[in-house]
Design goal:
The chain has one domain. Helices cover 69% and strands 0% of the residues. The protein contains 14 helices and no strands. The termini are far apart. The mean pLDDT is 83.
Length: 318
């Protein structure tokens, strides 16, 4: 398909973002507002140092809105859900952002969402549930609400990022930097109100923040936003399903978790969902009626040329 390289690069963003579940659970302190702030501020400054530029006109408030939805509010709610729920439950709730995004895109962008897009996203969410949920998982009401909120925030933010795109002549790294700093503006007063002064971080926690800021925040978000600004939401939204796949793989590598047959099936379903969205012809033919092939019209035979009548020769009279 067209833009396959761009689609792959875009998918790397959520794949990198999946490491945040592990980092939040094992490295970050239980201060989600400050964690979020120290994740987005250094990332935004780094991207602007690479490609500097200041917003103009409406892009001041657009950057704040995009930063709030895609990174600020999303990050806080994601960290709350990750710290109050088992990682599998938090990841499953977060996977619903793909469904939110395509539903909102159909209304806001008038994007044509076909049945196979919804089917693929539902299959992906089921796959995530099989991949990361455990029978012993316990639910916390605040954690569940935070998970649903983070999915909704990311879904709506994805649609607005596609709708607004980026100003002409401005690099995608620059707009990503604006968005991250917009998130920092949103998070800073909330951090002081709800968590007081900034916490002191241990060496281990600082390592977690460095990863969350520069790898997940700067690199991962820049890759994802660049694709969102240029590709249809129906293609980019399901890529967020890569988040829990990375989280599960990291648990296997770092903690030695073993995959059950159901988990392997879940991973296959997630990958299948992404492939189906990227290649709609695989599943689309089951939902669209094939048009009958038009029979070729018979070629018209050329009309016979008129035969010139032979004129009688004049008879000479001697």
């Amino acid at each position: 398909m067209k833009n396959s390289a761009l689609l792959i690069r875009t998918g790397l963003g959520p794949a990198i973002g999946g490491t945040l579940f592990f980092v939040a659970a094992h490295y970050l302190p239980p201060t989600p507002y400050w964690d979020g702030f120290f994740r987005v501020l250094p990332a935004g400054l780094l991207l602007l140092a690479i490609r500097f530029g200041l917003p103009r006109g409406a892009w001041w408030w657009k950057s704040l809105v995009l930063g709030t939805l895609n990174m600020g509010l999303f990050t806080v709610l994601l960290l709350i859900s990750a710290q109050r729920l088992p990682g599998g439950v938090a990841a499953t709730l977060n996977a619903m952002s793909s469904l939110v995004a395509i539903a909102v895109a159909s209304v806001v962008l008038k994007e044509k969402i076909r049945p196979h897009h919804y089917v693929a996203c539902l299959v992906g969410v089921v796959g995530v549930a099989l991949l990361v949920l455990r029978s012993s998982a316990t639910l916390d009401a605040i954690g569940v609400l935070a998970g649903i909120g983070s999915a909704s925030s990311m879904g709506i933010g994805t649609v607005l990022a596609r709708k607004w795109g980026r100003p002409e002549g401005v690099h995608s790294l620059t707009t990503a930097g604006w968005t991250l700093l917009g998130a920092a503006v949103f998070l800073l007063p909330l951090a002081f109100v709800f968590e007081g002064a900034p916490p002191s971080f241990t060496g281990k926690q600082l390592l977690g923040l460095v990863w969350a800021a520069f790898v997940v925040g700067a690199l991962g978000f820049a890759l994802y936003l660049s694709g969102v600004q240029r590709l249809p939401v129906s293609l980019t939204a399901p890529l967020t399903l890569m988040n829990p796949v990375t989280a599960a793989l990291l648990g296997w590598v770092a903690v030695g978790e073993r995959f059950t047959p159901l988990q392997l099936l879940g991973g296959v379903l997630v990958c299948a969902a992404i492939i189906l969205v990227a290649n709609p012809d695989i599943l689309g033919r089951f939902f669209t009626k094939a048009e009958p092939k038009a029979e070729p019209e018979p070629k018209a035979e050329p009309a016979p040329e008129p035969v010139a009548e032979e004129q009688p020769k004049p008879v000479s009279v001697a």
